[in-house]
Amino acid sequence: MQKLLLTLIVVFSLNAINAQENSTDETTTYYLVRHAEKDLSDKTNRDPALTEIGHARAKNLVKVLQEVKFDAVYSTDYKRTRDTAKPLAEANNLDLQLYNPRNIDYQGFQEKTKGQTVLIVGHSNTTPYFSNGLLGKEAYENLDESIYNNLYIVTVTNGVATSMVLKID
């Protein structure tokens, strides 16, 4: 946890220094996560809810990102993604915005969210794919079904995209 906080402090400090050096820079920051742990007890349920551990992880995401002021929170239209995104949206007094991962216009999305700080909650396959779309290159592969703790951070400044992945527990 201390490593994560230190990394976030360094990232935000570098962004702040860069913004001071060139005030015409416009930075957009995207935080992308897979939904938290889902109930796997009914293999036929295509829209399972979060488990208790999943709800705890969603609440912990708010704690981990408590110093970040979000402008928008996006989620796919499934219980598990909405319930992962909802605590952070509420903490930032934001309405949850839904998106269809099968129909994303990355250029249009980036224009709409330019200069903002955005959380995007998706799935084991859509979160890395969305990150790649924002980066404009294939950097990340689908997640294993057992991985719920990746936090992708994509930063776009003056059209130049960079990224990192952090592990949060």
Automatic annotation (TrEMBL):
Keywords: Isomerase, Signal. The keyword Signal applies. Its EC number is 5.4.-.-. Gene3D superfamilies: Phosphoglycerate mutase-like. It is an enzyme of class 5 (isomerase). InterPro entries: His_Pase_superF_clade-1, His_PPase_superfam. GO terms for molecular function: isomerase activity. SUPFAM superfamilies: Phosphoglycerate mutase-like (SSF53254). SMART domains: PGAM. Residues 1-19 form the signal peptide. This is Phosphoglycerate mutase family protein. The lineage of its organism: Bacteria, Pseudomonadati, Bacteroidota, Flavobacteriia, Flavobacteriales.
